[in-house]
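Hi everyone,

Forwarding the result from last night's run.
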Amino acid sequence: KFADELFKAQGVGINIKQTNANNAYIRFKDVYSSGDFFAHAVIPETTEWMGPYKTPPKNPKRPSYIVIEMNQRTLDMKGMGDFQRTYAAGHEIGHTLGAAHPELCKDNTSVGLMNAGNFTEIKSRTFNTPMLYDKNVIKQLYQ
């Protein structure tokens, strides 16, 4: 819901809606993995999606769908509540839309939903919706 509101507020012409899982572009999947991650976006590895990029690819191929896996084992084990789970899900939605971690960009000290973080950092965050950096990236990619 927050992603749809963000796009409407930014006027980028993108709508996100809940739909049948068989025709969804971004799918969510609960997993119980031994991996040490809260969530991650499983994006097909094509040359257009491999980065990091300093500018958006000129002619990216659109995968038929992307899966965001939410690792219930790690989320439960670390005591992540709804606030932090929303942060993790929103962060991964950002990746599916093409946003990178700001700390990968030279001299960028922005703080936003797209910042990578460990358990301590994520637990201390006071926001779980897109911040200025996140909004600007989406505007750059979709306007």
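The radius of gyration is 15 Å.

Cheers,
N.
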